[in-house]
Design a protein that fits this description.
Distance between the termini of chain A: 29 Å
Largest sheet of chain A: 2 strands, antiparallel
Oligomer: heterodimer
Radius of gyration of chain A: 18 Å
Structural class of chain A: mainly alpha
Order of helices and strands of chain B: HHH
Distance between the termini of chain B: 31 Å
Strand content of chain A: under 5%
Helix content of chain B: over 70%
Number of strands of chain A: 2
Order of helices and strands of chain A: HHHHHEEHHHHH
Number of helices of chain A: 10
Shape of chain A: globular
């Protein structure tokens, strides 16, 4: 039964990722805690390995489309990986309740952030720039430059820390800031972030794996679910109204966050 | 670059195949561990492949980034 649940958690995380751009750890960790009754360290470990496996396929597709900004991705990933490993080393020594409260606070902040930014669209420069990619929707080549690199390093490192500590990908932190502050087009920011997320999660999850927190069979079914869900998610994304789903998702995040904090405190 | 990207796809399928084998053949649990290793070390192999790709393309700046990243990844594995 637990494998079926793991499969559906994988599907759900992938669907929310396709529709709202938020998936991975934000969905996997709380649902694993609630429905699979996993201890939080195991939930984080399973989430990180699943993020790696899904990132591999997404990155493969993005490389084919030539959207990923390799110099930026590789450059930022150095500090991100260091912070992810440090955070995972801290996390494995932390009490379960402390981690649950940290995750709850993270989910609360995320839901408030989503409420605030649900209607805003990020603009980007389309002037001649150093980097470019072909946008299939616009049917033209988009040029751009990277601005405010120190800020990008700072944010990326913070995302790495979150990834190692809480088992989330960190894309939700990275993508909006890379787009809004560093003026990177949203597609390039998302594609580059999804490549970085895989590398970050891989080096963080090795720490968890060495300590025996990874459950391979759960990872298998979650990864299969995520692969299946990514195809379903793209189909639903065209049919459903994202605004309604986003509101439901925010409400669910709030409920889960409060439940996690209260349970940890009691 | 397509060849470099293939590393990711191959790593993913090898990882899942080993995990599946470990799940089906109960006495061979170590296959699952190999599956996890395959998934986790695929990004490492990918970064290595990238560094080789950029070295051969004489893009030394990105080559340097990828080599530094690879070094960080390898060191972090043993921390």
């Amino acid at each position: 039964m637990e494998f079926v649940i793991a499969f559906f958690i994988g599907i759900l995380s992938s669907i929310t990722a396709s529709m709202l751009g938020i998936g991975g750890g934000v969905v996997i960790v709380p649902l694993s805690l609630i429905f699979l009754k996993l201890p939080i360290h195991n939930a984080i470990a399973v989430s990180l390995v699943t993020i790696v496996s899904t990132s591999l396929l997404v990155t493969y597709k993005n490389i084919e489309k030539k959207i990923i900004n390799m110099p930026m991705g590789l450059g930022l990933e150095v500090s991100t990986s260091i912070f992810a490993v440090v955070a995972s080393l801290i996390a494995i020594n932390l009490n379960q309740d402390v981690l649950k409260i940290a995750f709850g606070v993270f989910l609360l902040s995320l839901s408030f952030f989503m409420m605030k930014n649900s209607k805003s669209k990020y603009e980007y420069s389309e002037t001649n720039g150093k980097f470019s990619y072909f946008d299939q929707n616009l049917n033209k080549v988009v040029y751009y430059d990277i601005k405010n690199i120190p800020m990008a390093i700072l944010i990326s490192s913070f995302a790495g820390f979150l990834s190692g500590m809480l088992g989330v990908g960190g894309g939700i932190v990275k993508v909006p800031i890379l787009n809004a502050v560093c003026k990177i087009p949203i597609k390039a920011a998302t594609a580059t972030s999804s490549m970085m997320v895989g590398i970050t999660a891989a080096c963080a999850s090795i720490v968890y794996f060495r300590h025996g927190y990874v459950i391979p069979n759960i990872v298998l079914f979650m990864s299969l679910g995520a692969v299946f869900g990514s195809k379903v998610g793209l189909y639903i994304a065209h049919k459903a109204k994202n605004e309604v789903i986003e509101k439901v998702f925010i409400a669910l995040l709030l409920i889960v966050a409060i439940e996690m904090i209260v349970k940890a405190l009691i | 670059m397509k060849f470099v990207a293939l590393v990711l796809k191959i790593g993913f399928y090898i990882g899942l195949l080993l995990l599946f084998a470990g799940f089906v053949f109960k006495g061979y649990g170590y296959l699952s561990a190999y599956g996890i290793y395959a998934l986790l070390f695929t990004p490492y192999v990918f970064v290595l492949a990238l560094s080789i790709f950029y070295l051969f393309n004489k893009d030394y700046k990105i080559f340097l980034f990828s080599i530094i990243l690879l070094g960080v990844l390898i060191i972090s594995t043993f921390v």
